[in-house]
Amino acid sequence: MIIFVAGLIGTGKTSLAKALAERLGYYYYDVDRVKKEIYPTDPQYEYNLKNNIPFSDEIRAKVFAKVVHDFAELSRKYTHVVVDETLHKKALRQILFDGAKKYFGGYVIIWVVADEALIKERLERDIRPGHVLRDAYGMYLSFKKEFEAFECPDIIFENNAPLQESIVGLAQRVKEVTRAGLA
Predict the structure, then answer these.
(1) Distance (Å, whole) CA 42 – CA 35
(2) CA–CA gap between residue 131 and residue 147 (Å, rounded)
């Protein structure tokens, strides 16, 4: 099963996903690694980053196609994989969902939210070395405008507490949902 930890930039989805994978003994798949390979091939790469414009659906679809290709290989080695991604557009996230069904038999969606002030504080304070985004808060605002709501995520998780407090409750909820999904 794929556990998608989804949320807008700054909600803490990457930190949660990595901690969740470690706590549950699942493999963590780094979508940002794929983005670093594919995004720079976009002729609008520098312009988009400078102007806080989310990458085109076409370039994001290329990223997700590569991720699904990797799912095929990962499914031979792992039962569960944790993936974090914004998943802010329905048509694009469906590429990943279809791949998760095909190679892992299903998926769980954790939609991570956080207080707006906390998101701004995180993004203005935390400069992530090597991260593709240069103005993370500006890009957050752009993604927020494009966001297309989920019909019903399996878990909606409010991530306003320190990571160590958050991960305990989230791991328990994921265990319950994955057990129910396997029954």
Answers:
(1) 11
(2) 21
